Amino acid sequence: MAVRALALPESSRNIPLCSRTIRVGITERNEGAGSVTVRAEETVIGFVGTGVMGKSMAGHFLRAGYRVLVYTRTKAKAEELLAAGAVWKERVSELAAEANVIITMVGYPSDVEEVYLGPEGIISHAKPGAFLIDMTTSKPSLAQKIYEEAKKHALHALDAPVSGGDVGAREARLAIMVGGDQEAFDAVEPLLAVMGKNVVLQGGPGAGQHTKMCNQICIATNMIGVCEAIAYAKKAGLDPARVLTSIEAGAAGSWSLSNLAPRMIAGNYAPGFYIKHFIKDMGIALEAAEEMGLLTPGLALSKSLYEELAEKGEADSGTQALIKWFERE
Question: At 157, is the secondary structure helix, strand, or coil?
Fold first, then answer.
Protein backbone atom coordinates (compact mmCIF):
# COMPACT_ATOMS: atom_id res chain seq x y z
CA MET A 1 0.00 0.00 0.00
CA ALA A 2 1.42 3.39 -0.94
CA VAL A 3 0.48 6.84 0.33
CA ARG A 4 1.07 9.82 -1.90
CA ALA A 5 4.19 11.79 -1.10
CA LEU A 6 3.97 15.21 0.52
CA ALA A 7 4.72 18.12 -1.78
CA LEU A 8 7.27 20.43 -0.23
CA PRO A 9 6.86 24.18 -0.75
CA GLU A 10 9.20 25.63 -3.38
CA SER A 11 10.95 27.73 -0.73
CA SER A 12 12.24 24.66 1.07
CA ARG A 13 13.53 22.64 -1.86
CA ASN A 14 17.06 24.02 -1.66
CA ILE A 15 17.42 23.85 2.12
CA PRO A 16 20.54 21.74 2.86
CA LEU A 17 19.86 18.48 4.66
CA CYS A 18 21.52 17.84 7.97
CA SER A 19 23.10 14.46 8.58
CA ARG A 20 20.22 13.29 10.77
CA THR A 21 17.30 14.25 8.56
CA ILE A 22 14.67 11.54 8.53
CA ARG A 23 12.74 10.77 5.36
CA VAL A 24 9.03 11.27 5.48
CA GLY A 25 6.22 11.54 2.99
CA ILE A 26 5.89 8.25 1.14
CA THR A 27 4.75 5.37 3.26
CA GLU A 28 5.12 1.96 1.72
CA ARG A 29 4.05 -1.33 3.24
CA ASN A 30 6.22 -4.28 2.38
CA GLU A 31 3.80 -6.99 1.36
CA GLY A 32 4.21 -10.07 3.50
CA ALA A 33 6.54 -8.40 5.99
CA GLY A 34 3.86 -6.25 7.62
CA SER A 35 6.26 -3.35 8.17
CA VAL A 36 6.06 0.26 7.08
CA THR A 37 9.09 2.05 5.72
CA VAL A 38 8.94 5.83 5.79
CA ARG A 39 11.14 7.63 3.30
CA ALA A 40 11.09 10.37 0.61
CA GLU A 41 11.53 14.09 0.99
CA GLU A 42 13.21 16.62 3.21
CA THR A 43 11.84 17.13 6.70
CA VAL A 44 10.05 20.40 7.42
CA ILE A 45 9.38 20.76 11.14
CA GLY A 46 6.52 22.81 12.50
CA PHE A 47 6.94 23.69 16.19
CA VAL A 48 3.99 25.00 18.19
CA GLY A 49 4.78 26.45 21.62
CA THR A 50 8.12 28.15 22.30
CA GLY A 51 8.05 28.72 26.04
CA VAL A 52 10.72 27.90 28.61
CA MET A 53 11.32 24.40 27.24
CA GLY A 54 9.90 24.59 23.72
CA LYS A 55 12.28 27.36 22.71
CA SER A 56 15.32 25.23 23.49
CA MET A 57 13.82 22.14 21.89
CA ALA A 58 13.05 23.94 18.64
CA GLY A 59 16.49 25.54 18.70
CA HIS A 60 18.20 22.15 18.51
CA PHE A 61 16.54 21.49 15.16
CA LEU A 62 17.75 24.81 13.78
CA ARG A 63 21.30 24.09 14.90
CA ALA A 64 21.06 20.63 13.34
CA GLY A 65 20.19 22.19 9.98
CA TYR A 66 16.46 21.54 9.76
CA ARG A 67 13.94 23.97 8.28
CA VAL A 68 11.75 25.01 11.22
CA LEU A 69 8.39 26.79 11.19
CA VAL A 70 7.16 28.19 14.51
CA TYR A 71 3.94 29.42 16.03
CA THR A 72 3.25 30.52 19.57
CA ARG A 73 0.55 32.74 21.03
CA THR A 74 3.06 35.40 22.09
CA LYS A 75 5.36 36.10 19.15
CA ALA A 76 7.94 37.76 21.39
CA LYS A 77 8.71 34.34 22.87
CA ALA A 78 9.83 33.18 19.42
CA GLU A 79 12.06 36.14 18.55
CA GLU A 80 15.28 34.32 19.44
CA LEU A 81 14.32 31.41 17.18
CA LEU A 82 13.31 33.74 14.37
CA ALA A 83 16.67 35.49 14.60
CA ALA A 84 18.31 32.05 14.30
CA GLY A 85 16.45 31.27 11.08
CA ALA A 86 13.05 29.88 12.06
CA VAL A 87 10.07 30.94 9.94
CA TRP A 88 7.10 32.54 11.69
CA LYS A 89 3.56 31.40 10.93
CA GLU A 90 0.55 33.52 11.90
CA ARG A 91 -1.75 30.55 12.50
CA VAL A 92 -1.48 26.92 13.54
CA SER A 93 -3.40 26.01 10.38
CA GLU A 94 -0.74 27.66 8.18
CA LEU A 95 2.05 25.84 9.95
CA ALA A 96 0.21 22.51 9.75
CA ALA A 97 -0.38 22.86 6.01
CA GLU A 98 3.32 23.28 5.27
CA ALA A 99 5.17 21.05 7.75
CA ASN A 100 5.39 17.28 7.50
CA VAL A 101 6.47 16.78 11.11
CA ILE A 102 4.53 18.86 13.65
CA ILE A 103 5.68 19.07 17.27
CA THR A 104 3.63 20.73 20.00
CA MET A 105 4.73 21.88 23.46
CA VAL A 106 1.89 23.93 24.93
CA GLY A 107 0.49 24.48 28.41
CA TYR A 108 -2.70 22.64 29.30
CA PRO A 109 -4.89 19.84 27.97
CA SER A 110 -7.38 22.49 26.83
CA ASP A 111 -4.60 24.06 24.72
CA VAL A 112 -3.69 20.66 23.27
CA GLU A 113 -7.31 20.00 22.37
CA GLU A 114 -7.69 23.36 20.64
CA VAL A 115 -4.37 23.06 18.77
CA TYR A 116 -5.16 19.58 17.45
CA LEU A 117 -8.92 19.29 17.27
CA GLY A 118 -10.15 22.88 16.83
CA PRO A 119 -11.46 24.16 13.46
CA GLU A 120 -8.12 25.92 12.86
CA GLY A 121 -6.20 23.04 14.35
CA ILE A 122 -3.55 20.66 13.14
CA ILE A 123 -5.67 17.65 12.25
CA SER A 124 -7.99 19.67 10.02
CA HIS A 125 -5.11 21.21 8.07
CA ALA A 126 -2.15 18.81 8.07
CA LYS A 127 -1.30 16.91 4.91
CA PRO A 128 -1.94 13.17 4.82
CA GLY A 129 1.11 11.25 5.98
CA ALA A 130 2.34 13.96 8.35
CA PHE A 131 3.67 13.05 11.78
CA LEU A 132 2.11 14.75 14.82
CA ILE A 133 4.10 14.65 18.05
CA ASP A 134 2.54 16.18 21.17
CA MET A 135 5.22 16.70 23.83
CA THR A 136 2.94 18.52 26.26
CA THR A 137 2.16 16.74 29.51
CA SER A 138 -1.54 16.09 28.99
CA LYS A 139 -4.33 13.61 29.64
CA PRO A 140 -3.82 10.03 28.42
CA SER A 141 -7.45 9.96 27.31
CA LEU A 142 -6.89 13.07 25.16
CA ALA A 143 -3.82 11.48 23.58
CA GLN A 144 -5.94 8.49 22.61
CA LYS A 145 -8.63 10.78 21.16
CA ILE A 146 -6.07 12.69 19.07
CA TYR A 147 -4.60 9.41 17.83
CA GLU A 148 -8.01 8.17 16.65
CA GLU A 149 -8.88 11.45 14.95
CA ALA A 150 -5.48 11.63 13.29
CA LYS A 151 -5.87 8.12 11.97
CA LYS A 152 -9.10 9.13 10.22
CA HIS A 153 -7.10 11.76 8.30
CA ALA A 154 -4.18 9.45 7.43
CA LEU A 155 -1.95 11.19 10.00
CA HIS A 156 0.50 9.55 12.40
CA ALA A 157 0.03 10.78 16.00
CA LEU A 158 2.35 10.16 18.94
CA ASP A 159 2.15 11.40 22.52
CA ALA A 160 5.69 12.09 23.71
CA PRO A 161 5.87 14.05 26.99
CA VAL A 162 9.30 14.82 28.38
CA SER A 163 11.19 15.07 31.65
CA GLY A 164 14.38 16.96 32.42
CA GLY A 165 13.18 20.52 32.86
CA ASP A 166 14.78 23.60 31.38
CA VAL A 167 18.28 22.19 31.83
CA GLY A 168 17.46 18.96 30.00
CA ALA A 169 15.79 20.95 27.21
CA ARG A 170 18.78 23.27 26.79
CA GLU A 171 21.32 20.43 26.82
CA ALA A 172 19.26 18.10 24.57
CA ARG A 173 19.16 15.34 27.15
CA LEU A 174 15.47 15.08 27.88
CA ALA A 175 13.84 11.78 28.76
CA ILE A 176 11.12 11.29 26.15
CA MET A 177 8.24 8.90 26.88
CA VAL A 178 6.34 7.90 23.78
CA GLY A 179 2.94 6.39 23.10
CA GLY A 180 1.71 5.32 19.66
CA ASP A 181 2.40 2.90 16.84
CA GLN A 182 5.80 1.23 16.54
CA GLU A 183 6.07 2.18 12.85
CA ALA A 184 5.49 5.88 13.49
CA PHE A 185 7.92 5.82 16.40
CA ASP A 186 10.63 4.18 14.30
CA ALA A 187 10.17 6.85 11.63
CA VAL A 188 10.64 9.84 13.95
CA GLU A 189 12.99 8.40 16.56
CA PRO A 190 16.00 10.17 14.96
CA LEU A 191 14.17 13.47 15.38
CA LEU A 192 13.34 12.78 19.01
CA ALA A 193 17.00 11.96 19.56
CA VAL A 194 17.86 15.54 18.56
CA MET A 195 16.11 16.67 21.77
CA GLY A 196 16.72 13.80 24.18
CA LYS A 197 19.05 11.04 25.28
CA ASN A 198 16.51 8.57 26.65
CA VAL A 199 13.81 7.96 24.06
CA VAL A 200 11.52 4.99 24.79
CA LEU A 201 8.30 3.77 23.19
CA GLN A 202 6.16 2.78 26.18
CA GLY A 203 3.19 1.33 24.31
CA GLY A 204 0.15 2.37 22.32
CA PRO A 205 -1.54 5.79 22.26
CA GLY A 206 -1.69 7.35 25.72
CA ALA A 207 1.16 5.22 27.09
CA GLY A 208 3.58 8.13 26.93
CA GLN A 209 1.26 10.28 29.02
CA HIS A 210 0.69 7.49 31.56
CA THR A 211 4.46 7.11 31.89
CA LYS A 212 4.82 10.86 32.45
CA MET A 213 2.27 10.59 35.25
CA CYS A 214 4.53 8.00 36.91
CA ASN A 215 7.39 10.48 36.53
CA GLN A 216 5.41 13.35 38.09
CA ILE A 217 4.24 11.19 40.98
CA CYS A 218 7.87 10.40 41.80
CA ILE A 219 8.87 14.05 41.59
CA ALA A 220 5.91 15.28 43.66
CA THR A 221 6.80 13.37 46.81
CA ASN A 222 10.55 13.64 46.21
CA MET A 223 10.30 17.44 46.22
CA ILE A 224 8.79 17.32 49.70
CA GLY A 225 11.76 15.25 50.88
CA VAL A 226 14.28 17.61 49.27
CA CYS A 227 12.69 20.66 50.93
CA GLU A 228 12.43 18.98 54.31
CA ALA A 229 16.10 17.97 54.15
CA ILE A 230 17.25 21.51 53.37
CA ALA A 231 15.02 22.98 56.07
CA TYR A 232 16.36 20.41 58.55
CA ALA A 233 19.99 21.17 57.64
CA LYS A 234 19.44 24.87 58.26
CA LYS A 235 17.70 24.28 61.58
CA ALA A 236 20.57 22.02 62.67
CA GLY A 237 23.04 24.81 61.94
CA LEU A 238 24.63 23.03 58.99
CA ASP A 239 25.73 24.49 55.68
CA PRO A 240 23.04 23.07 53.36
CA ALA A 241 25.31 23.33 50.30
CA ARG A 242 27.92 21.21 52.05
CA VAL A 243 25.26 18.75 53.16
CA LEU A 244 24.27 18.38 49.51
CA THR A 245 27.78 17.29 48.53
CA SER A 246 27.36 14.30 50.83
CA ILE A 247 23.77 13.23 50.41
CA GLU A 248 23.39 13.69 46.64
CA ALA A 249 26.14 11.12 46.08
CA GLY A 250 24.43 8.48 48.20
CA ALA A 251 21.11 6.65 48.30
CA ALA A 252 19.20 9.96 48.64
CA GLY A 253 20.46 11.19 45.30
CA SER A 254 17.94 12.39 42.71
CA TRP A 255 17.65 14.84 39.83
CA SER A 256 15.67 17.24 42.02
CA LEU A 257 18.27 17.08 44.80
CA SER A 258 21.17 17.80 42.43
CA ASN A 259 19.49 20.37 40.20
CA LEU A 260 16.80 22.11 42.24
CA ALA A 261 18.15 22.05 45.79
CA PRO A 262 21.06 24.37 44.83
CA ARG A 263 18.51 26.82 43.41
CA MET A 264 16.52 26.63 46.66
CA ILE A 265 19.64 27.37 48.71
CA ALA A 266 20.56 30.30 46.45
CA GLY A 267 17.03 31.74 46.59
CA ASN A 268 16.67 31.31 42.83
CA TYR A 269 13.01 30.67 42.09
CA ALA A 270 13.07 31.39 38.34
CA PRO A 271 10.97 28.80 36.51
CA GLY A 272 12.59 25.85 34.86
CA PHE A 273 9.13 24.37 35.26
CA TYR A 274 6.23 26.48 36.51
CA ILE A 275 4.35 25.65 39.70
CA LYS A 276 1.09 26.23 37.85
CA HIS A 277 2.01 23.59 35.29
CA PHE A 278 3.11 21.12 37.95
CA ILE A 279 -0.24 21.55 39.70
CA LYS A 280 -1.89 20.78 36.36
CA ASP A 281 0.20 17.64 35.97
CA MET A 282 -0.56 16.44 39.48
CA GLY A 283 -4.26 17.02 38.87
CA ILE A 284 -4.14 14.85 35.75
CA ALA A 285 -2.28 12.11 37.66
CA LEU A 286 -4.74 12.20 40.55
CA GLU A 287 -7.68 12.00 38.16
CA ALA A 288 -6.17 9.08 36.26
CA ALA A 289 -5.25 7.26 39.47
CA GLU A 290 -8.78 7.70 40.80
CA GLU A 291 -10.21 6.29 37.57
CA MET A 292 -8.03 3.21 38.10
CA GLY A 293 -9.01 2.89 41.77
CA LEU A 294 -5.50 3.74 43.00
CA LEU A 295 -4.78 5.78 46.13
CA THR A 296 -1.87 8.26 45.88
CA PRO A 297 -1.72 10.09 49.24
CA GLY A 298 1.80 11.45 48.70
CA LEU A 299 0.75 13.00 45.40
CA ALA A 300 -2.34 14.53 47.00
CA LEU A 301 -0.25 16.08 49.79
CA SER A 302 2.28 17.56 47.38
CA LYS A 303 -0.48 19.05 45.23
CA SER A 304 -2.09 20.67 48.28
CA LEU A 305 1.21 22.31 49.31
CA TYR A 306 1.81 23.66 45.81
CA GLU A 307 -1.76 24.94 45.58
CA GLU A 308 -1.24 26.84 48.82
CA LEU A 309 1.87 28.44 47.35
CA ALA A 310 0.04 29.31 44.13
CA GLU A 311 -2.68 31.03 46.15
CA LYS A 312 0.05 33.16 47.73
CA GLY A 313 1.25 34.38 44.33
CA GLU A 314 3.85 31.75 43.45
CA ALA A 315 2.07 30.16 40.47
CA ASP A 316 4.67 31.50 38.02
CA SER A 317 7.65 30.54 40.17
CA GLY A 318 9.70 27.41 39.55
CA THR A 319 8.79 24.22 41.39
CA GLN A 320 11.83 24.70 43.66
CA ALA A 321 9.91 27.52 45.35
CA LEU A 322 8.23 24.80 47.42
CA ILE A 323 11.02 25.45 49.94
CA LYS A 324 9.17 28.66 50.84
CA TRP A 325 6.36 26.59 52.35
CA PHE A 326 8.82 24.95 54.75
CA GLU A 327 10.63 28.17 55.60
CA ARG A 328 7.55 30.25 56.23
CA GLU A 329 7.34 32.00 59.58
Answer: strand
